[in-house]
Write a structure and sequence with these properties.
Layout lengths: L2 E7 L20 E7 L4 H4 L9 H13 L4 E4 L8 H5 L6 E2 L6 H8 L2 E6 L7 H6 L8 E5 L4 H8 L7 H18 L3 E6 L8 H8 L3 E2 L1 H12 L6
Parallel strand pairs: 1-2, 1-3, 3-4, 5-6, 5-7, 7-8
Helix pairs in contact: 7-8
Length: 229
Amino acid sequence: MTTIGVILLSEASFHRPAGDIGSAASYPCRIILHVARGLAAGDVVRSVPNSALLGPYLEGALRLQEQGANIVTTTCGFLIPLQNAIAAQLRVPFVASSLLQIPLVHRLVKGRVGIITANDEALTKTYLELAGVSDDVPTAILGLQRDGAFADYYLNGRGELNLERVEDCVAHAAQRLLEHFPDIKAFVFECHNLPPFAAAVQRKTGKPVFDVLSLVNFALHGVNKPIYA
């Protein structure tokens, strides 16, 4: 049975709707979870990569692999600094961050890529470079940290999740970004909690939207090939 392993942050115990990277309802196959204990969103979403994350995430990835995971992934796009070190230690594909898609998306649409992130002040050039985004890949970035509908729940762990309010804030963020950069041809979500709202962004902007599930499904197709007969 094909299995996807997901490494969760310990303090991120919030409700995960279908589409969220940590929800079993997001996948066509079995998932298993591992909690990287003692970590919170603030340890990951920061302008300078946190080298202390490698140990707990590598431990989690290896454990998930031994439990039968065919693919291992994470719950935050800011974990791109871990991609090479952890992938080199596994026998199975490792998806640290949805940001890995940006160079490919740029090649697919040959135009500017709009990036919706949990925090645009923290998403520095360092993270993009680690994802393989060179200077000749045009991007535009907008964060959701100033919108309480998103930030209170996902970043600060307060209140209840209001899907309609978060969907509205994500869709309007994409629309604002498109108004400032009308040459955007596709969007990539940094935040791994945002796939439930991708369809709303697509409706609002008419542009293709790529998220962590796009990348996980790409890897899934590689490890579980259909038989055409």
